[in-house]
Amino acid sequence: MRILGIETSCDETGIAIYDEDKGIMAHRLFSQIAVHADYGGVVPELASRDHVRKTIPLIKEALNEAGLTPKDLDGVAYTAGPGLVGALLVGCSIGRSLAYGWDLPAVPVHHMEGHLLAPMLEENVPEFPFVALLVSGGHTMLVRVDGIGEYELLGESVDDAAGEAFDKTAKLLGLDYPGGPVLAKMAEDGTPGRFKFPRPMTDRPGLNFSFSGLKTAAATTIKKTDDSDQTKADIAYAFQEAVIDTLAIKCRRALEQCKLNRLVIAGGVSANVSLRNKLATVMKKLNGEVFYPRPEYCTDNGAMIAFAGMQRLKSGVHTDLTFKANPRWPLDSLDPV
Ligand code: KG4
Ligand code: ZN
Fewer CB within 10 Å of terminal CB in the chain, N or C? Predict the structure, then answer.
């Protein structure tokens, strides 16, 4: 079976074709970074309009890349939520309409389930059950995963998501949007130990996160110091170290609580090399293993939507002619497959 995946939940138009036997046959991505850069963040209306421009041409390119026609497909999967409602509606309406026109089932996909299952596109596939750390621009979640659709939310951010904290702190440091990867690069030149930021909510039990205070700590430090490149790098280092330490402490706690030793990390921030290194060290100590997607499948993409859509399609999930975008769709409300 073969499925087309459409991702338009935020600022990336992602299209892919997944084949059960061959894997990803085509993968197209258009990043809107340049569209939003002048504004320092995603402008929802501009995002929707750009998805309208890019989705169909990218689908045509993906079909060409794979040497396929719509007749060779068995379904159309699209991100139905969570995300920006206007942006989601573009993917939903195009996905649903193509499915109708091509006489195929249309499969709504949960964006975070897409992220969560992305490591399964790699050679070394994690076995169930495992703990997943989902870290993106919109979400920070720890989830116990017992199977596809069997998700127990263990903890989440009570304010900013990890990626959001990276982006906001990067902005304070004068870096362009999206600042996460740029801040990470800058931190490579930072001096360990010059600044020390708190590890929020690690001194009490529980698996929730709070990152907005870290951004404030960074803002206060920026105000008090000079604005040399070295000082900026030192602040970036201390901020990144605090986020990563906090994530690692909570991952360890979640694994101990669930008595598991397999960890999956996914979502945009999982592309962060220091985070990967830190979690590799933690998992080594726990005699466990950490799994993550290749960097291009960490940030938003169509491949993860096609893959998650295939799992749902095989279990018989598809929609009638109506379509619905669900900008606030709880991950733990999904049905098991
Ligand atoms: O998963 P994603 O592409 O979109 C959402 O679903 O939100 O995640 C985007 C987020 C942004 O906040 C971006 O700054 C962050 O992931 N990000 C990073 C890195 N690469 C992307 N944060 C830290 N280090 C990175 N290398
Ligand atoms: Zn995402």
Answer: N
Q: What is the residue type of 6?
A: I
* Closest-approaching ligand to the CA atom of 162: 1
Alpha helices in 211-272 (DSSP H): 212-224, 229-258
Atom of ligand 1 nearest to the CA of 184: 24
302-320 pLDDT, tens per residue?
999 999 999 999 999 888 8
Mutate to test the pocket of ligand 1, among 113, 133, 136, 156 (most ligand atoms within 8 A of CB): 136
Q: Quote the CA–CA distance of 45 and 220 in Å, as a whole number.
A: 33
- The DSSP line for 1-41 is -EEEEEE-SSSEEEEEEEETTTEEEEEEEEE-HHHHHTTTS
Beta-strand ranges (E) seen in the chain are 2-7, 12-19, 23-31, 75-81, 106-110, 130-135, 140-147, 150-156, 262-266, 289-291
How far apart are the C-alpha atoms of 20 and 228, rounded to whole Å?
52
Cα 160 to ligand 1 centre (Å): 13
Q: Which pTM does this prediction carry? A: 0.97
> Closest ligand 1 atom to the C-alpha of 112?
6
Contact 84, 47 (CB under 8 A): yes
| Burial of 169 per CB tally in 10 Å (0-12, 13-18, 19+) | buried
Which residues, other chains included, contact 172 with Cβ-Cβ below 8 Å and sequence gap of 6+? 215, 218, 219, 222
Residues in the chain: 337
Contact 6, 94 (CB under 8 A): yes
d(CA 163, ligand 1 centre) in Å: 5
Q: 35 alpha carbon to ligand 2 midpoint, in Å?
A: 18
Of 127, 129, 119, whose CA–CA distance to 259 is shortest?
129
Structural contact between residues 186 and 241, judged by C-beta atoms closer than 8 angstroms: no
Prior bond of 82 cis (ω within 30°): yes
pLDDT digit string (tens) for 180-203?
999 999 999 999 999 999 999 999
pLDDT higher than 90, residue 87: yes
